[in-house]
Amino acid sequence: RRRRARAAMASVYEKTFTLKDEDHTMGNTIRYMLNKNPQVSLAGYSVPHPMETSVNVRVQTTGEVTATSAMRDALLDIISVCDHVHDTFGDAVDEFKAKNPTGMDTGKGKK
Questions:
Q1: HEC profile of 2-33
Q2: How far apart (Å, rounded) are the C-alpha atoms in residues 45 and 43?
Q3: DSSP character for 111?
Q4: How far is CA 73 from the centre of its chain?
Q5: Which residues on neighbouring strands pair with residue 55, listed in sequence order?
Q6: d(CA 71, CA 56)
Q7: pLDDT per residue over 72-111, tens digit each?
Q8: Cα(46)–Cα(56) distance, integer angstroms
Q9: Distance from C-alpha of 66 to C-alpha of 11, rounded to nearest angstrom
């Protein structure tokens, strides 16, 4: 009985998530965010086959949080980073347009 209970408990802290229609870009990003979490003891990803568009992300935690919770936190962190990059880039474009009302000279068409 104890062995079965421990196996069930361990599975809460160890999981493999399969992300459909994703590749190394998302897999590596999630792995990076998971590894930044001190409550995650192991995080890695693999692509089962180059012709498949799926990624397997393996998460093991220290037991303080569940693997699902760690994954959710990593995904929310990624959303926050993307929002920050989007806002910062938008502000930079607006600032550039304010300083350069005639637009950006790309140098194309000049001889």
A1: HHHHHHHHHHHHEEEEEEECCCHHHHHHHHHH
A2: 7
A3: -
A4: 10
A5: 19
A6: 12
A7: 999 999 999 999 999 999 999 999 999 998 876 666 655 5
A8: 5
A9: 9
Smallest Cα–Cα separation from 88: which of 80, 78, 98?
80
β-pairing, 40-46 vs 54-61, is antiparallel
Write the single-letter amino acid at 9: M
Question: Do you know the residue count of the chain?
Answer: 111
pLDDT band at 13 (very low <50, low <70, confident <90, very high): very high
Helices (H), the chain: 2-13, 24-36, 67-99
Tokens standing for residue 95: 């600032």
Residue with tokens 């637009």: 103
Helix (H) or strand (E) holding 46: strand 40-46
CA 69 to each of CA 37, 60, 76: distance values in angstroms, whole numbers, following the listed order: 11, 11, 11
